[in-house]
């Protein structure tokens, strides 16, 4: 029988007769509208909580058109153009950009624009270039360029069309609807725009007494999303701040911080300070500066919402820049809850672990849009994948609520899909009801992820566009995806944290990523204080697990600066004259559930053992893929990569126990014999939540202590046969 609550469903006009039955069937206790839809008149009669989307920084075209100087900005870079043998060089700055989205800001170009010789890195003096034309015809002419040097122009541009509304407009073919306009946004730093935002919100709240929750989608500054001249995505960075700029903001920054920002501080050679870049001081200062401004203004809006007796819910997406949910300022906003799109276990934990809010909500896939809910689409298959990815994370740290978005009128045309999301809703509620609202038990092993971002970007490493798959990072993102469902309390620490003694509170540290990136650490590994701190941590019994190119920077004859701890290093071509005789060892605690080959994804290539003390657990074409190494009282583990799979998740589970020197405890913590099955233990309820993460039936054996994951108590064994995707509650006593 369907239970009720904890589920939000999208509704729309024209479905009055169907809505009561649909909501009762799914057990939904809240409804919402989606971008481009409106709540029907019957909404107040449905007996459920009502969410309505609200866009502080867009939605009123009349105001936007009357205040074009309030439009938000981008900082963008032109194509790289090579100078001829002689004569001036003309650079068309809009080449490759979408004219309907972007327009060069031809205000004080000599102050806000920058021309750089990319061959030397030198800035071309402002009297050495000029600007002519406008719009798509805007051209910068460099009077005397150096022959055959490469030049770029970094330019400030207006955001002519809101990025998210543009995506929704094109995805849903709104160009055929005369009521749809290409919406222009407005900047919260503009005095007229801010006055309009606050007065509009008050009026909106007054006009909607039936609305219980204001679903801010989101606030002011969009993540960096720029389209090319074909209307396709050109550059997307879910963490990017390049669309949060304006002359007014940069003047305020200079007044507060005492130094002037350059265009290059945002363009960053064309990398736009993406999260893989080790953050510069200027960019770190900018994030802090915008965080304080945005969160202060968010608080003003939230206070208005609360005055009208409504809740404020923030969507973690779209215009979320400046509202870092793990940042120090976010708690000051007073936001009641956060909702976000769940695309994986890691993104689920990114939402559910957010501190300082009363509730978190996950919006599940697929979104009810015509790109999926159409002939040839597979909404049922996508729903199953989404649930299996996220369920293991929800079992570890439950979201308070789940929901869906889009056009319900499309979804009801797929009855099997509607049946399935009803089952998912019941299964989700059972985690709260049977688990008695408590968290499952975690191992006492304290695990940390070390990178340049630390706690501010918890659960957000190795992501480009939220949960999308990228060739160069899936081997690293798999580490986070695995950890999202494993029984460990995870802490994200920065190199500054290490310098401050943060390792004392950990048992195992992971350093994961490609050399030079913020996630591996770059030049932080040239700091002797950092190296000494980690070496001392391991010598005293700690564990270090490195994946890919950990601790990597070429210096003093080593590429992995902690090769002495990890027991491996990478051949860069400098030491090929040294003979090596690798010997693979097949038997080890870490690989007991991995009898065959190891999938390391892209791998790191040309990894060699530094000595005979290194146990090579997997070797491929002469390159070490997995190794274990004793160092002092502690241990090091190396993996060339770890794409997410059930087998790799189990491998990491074992590697953490071995690195912590706790492998003797592993066999009595309710670990299923089949890697495709996981268990969350709720000792207060005396139950375990068993999950078959496969779309096929499996048999498995469980063994665990009746008192929970660790400690004293009888070891009990259970044999289970599980249906495809089945979850089951079992008694542990």
Structural class: alpha/beta
Total domains = 3
- Please provide the count of β strands: 35
CATH topology label of the largest domain: TIM Barrel
Low-confidence stretches: none
Largest sheet: 8 strands, parallel, barrel
Which architecture of the largest domain would the CATH scheme give at its second level?
A: Alpha-Beta Barrel
Distance between the termini: 27 Å
Give the CATH class of the largest domain.
Alpha Beta
Radius of gyration: 27 Å
Q: Helicity level, as a percent range?
A: 10-25%
Which sequence of strands runs across the widest sheet? 1-2-3-13-16-17-18-19
Count up the helices: 17
GO molecular function, one term: 1,4-alpha-oligoglucan phosphorylase activity
Organism: Tessaracoccus aquimaris
Protein name: 1,3-beta-galactosyl-N-acetylhexosamine phosphorylase
Domain Lacto-N-biose phosphorylase central: 446-663
Question: What does this protein structure show overall?
Answer:
With 733 residues, this protein is α/β, with parallel strands linked by helices. The protein has three domains: 7-54 and 188-232 and 275-434, TIM Barrel, CATH 3.20.20; 446-661, 3-Layer(aba) Sandwich (Rossmann fold), CATH 3.40.50; 669-731, Golgi alpha-mannosidase II (Immunoglobulin-like). It contains 17 helices and 35 strands. Residues 5-440 form the Lacto-N-biose phosphorylase-like N-terminal TIM barrel domain. InterPro entries: Class_I_gatase-like (IPR029062), Ig-like_fold (IPR013783), Lact_bio_phlase-like_N (IPR035080), Lacto-N-biose_phosphorylase (IPR012711), LBP_M (IPR035363). This is 1,3-beta-galactosyl-N-acetylhexosamine phosphorylase. GO terms for molecular function: 1,4-alpha-oligoglucan phosphorylase activity.
């Amino acid at each position: 029988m369907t239970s009720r609550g904890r589920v939000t469903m999208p509704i729309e006009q024209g479905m009055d007769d169907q809505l009561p039955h649909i909501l009762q069937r799914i057990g939904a206790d809240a409804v919402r509208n989606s971008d481009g839809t409106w709540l029907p008149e019957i909404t107040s009669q449905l007996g459920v909580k009502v969410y309505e989307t609200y866009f502080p920084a867009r939605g009123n075209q009349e105001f936007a058109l009357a205040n074009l100087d309030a439009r938000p900005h981008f900082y963008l870079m032109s194509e790289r153009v090579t100078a001829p043998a002689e004569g001036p060089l003309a650079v068309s700055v809009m080449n490759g950009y979408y004219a309907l989205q972007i327009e060069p800001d031809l205000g004080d170009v000599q102050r806000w624009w920058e021309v750089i010789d990319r061959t030397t890195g030198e800035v071309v003096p402002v009297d050495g270039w000029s600007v002519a034309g406008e719009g798509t015809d805007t051209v910068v002419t460099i009077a005397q360029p150096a022959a055959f040097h490469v030049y770029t122009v970094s330019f400030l541009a207006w955001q002519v069309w809101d990025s998210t509304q543009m995506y929704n407009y094109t995805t849903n073919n709104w160009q055929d609807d005369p009521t749809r306009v290409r919406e222009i946004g407005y900047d919260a730093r503009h005095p007229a725009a801010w006055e309009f935002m606050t007065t509009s919100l008050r009026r909106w709240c007054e006009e909607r007494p039936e609305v219980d929750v204001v679903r801010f989608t989101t606030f002011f500054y969009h993540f960096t999303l720029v389209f090319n001249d074909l209307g396709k995505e050109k550059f997307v960075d879910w963490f990017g701040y390049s669309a949060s700029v304006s002359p007014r903001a940069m003047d305020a920054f200079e007044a507060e911080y005492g130094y002037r920002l350059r265009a290059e501080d945002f363009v960053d050679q064309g990398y736009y300070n993406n999260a893989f870049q080790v953050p510069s001081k200027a960019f770190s200062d900018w994030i802090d500066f915008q965080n304080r401004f945005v969160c202060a203004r968010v608080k003003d809006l939230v206070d208005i919402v609360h005055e009208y007796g409504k809740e404020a819910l923030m969507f973690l997406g779209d215009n979320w820049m400046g509202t870092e949910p793990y940042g120090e300022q976010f708690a000051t906003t007073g936001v009641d809850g956060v909702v976000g799109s769940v695309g994986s276990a890691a993104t689920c934990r990114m939402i559910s672990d957010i501190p300082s809010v009363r509730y978190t909500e996950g919006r599940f896939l697929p979104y009810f849009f015509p790109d999926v809910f159409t002939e040839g689409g597979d909404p049922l298959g996508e729903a199953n994948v989404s649930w299996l990815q996220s369920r293991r994370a929800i079992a570890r740290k439950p979201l308070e609520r789940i929901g869906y978005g889009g056009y319900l009128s499309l979804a009801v045309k797929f009855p099997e899909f509607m049946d399935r999301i009803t089952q998912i809703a019941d299964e989700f509620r059972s985690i709260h009801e049977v688990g008695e609202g408590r968290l499952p038990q975690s191992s006492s092993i304290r695990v940390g992820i070390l990178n340049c971002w630390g706690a501010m970007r918890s659960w957000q490493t190795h992501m480009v566009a939220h949960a999308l798959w990228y060739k160069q990072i899936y081997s690293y993102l798999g580490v986070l995806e695995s950890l999202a469902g494993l029984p460990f309390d995870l802490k994200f620490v920065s190199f500054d944290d290490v310098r401050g003694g943060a390792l004392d509170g950990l048992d195992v540290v992971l350093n994961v990523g490609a050399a030079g990136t913020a996630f591996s650490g770059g030049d932080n590994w040239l700091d002797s204080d950092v190296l000494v701190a980690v070496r001392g941590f391991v010598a005293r019994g700690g564990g270090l697990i490195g994946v890919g190119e950990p601790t990597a920077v070429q210096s003093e004859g080593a590429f992995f600066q902690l090769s002495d701890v990890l027991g491996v290093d990478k051949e860069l071509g400098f030491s090929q004259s040294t003979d090596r005789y690798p010997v693979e060892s097949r038997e080890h605690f870490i690989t007991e559930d991995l009898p065959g080959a190891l999938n390391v994804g892209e791998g790191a290539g040309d990894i060699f053992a530094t000595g005979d003390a290194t146990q090579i657990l997997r070797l491929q074409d002469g390159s070490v893929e997995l190794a274990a190494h004793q160092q002092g009282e502690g241990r090091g583990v190396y993996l060339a990569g770890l794409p997410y799979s059930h087998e790799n998740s189990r491998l990491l589970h074992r590697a953490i126990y071995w690195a912590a020197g706790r492998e003797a405890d592993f066999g009595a913590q309710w670990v299923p014999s089949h890697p495709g099955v996981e268990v969350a233990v709720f000792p207060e309820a005396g139950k375990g939540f068993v999950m078959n993460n496969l779309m096929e039936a499996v048999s498995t054996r469980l063994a665990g202590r009746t008192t929970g994951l660790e400690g004293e108590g009888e070891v009990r064994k259970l044999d289970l046969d599980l249906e495809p995707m089945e979850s089951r509650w079992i008694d542990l006593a």
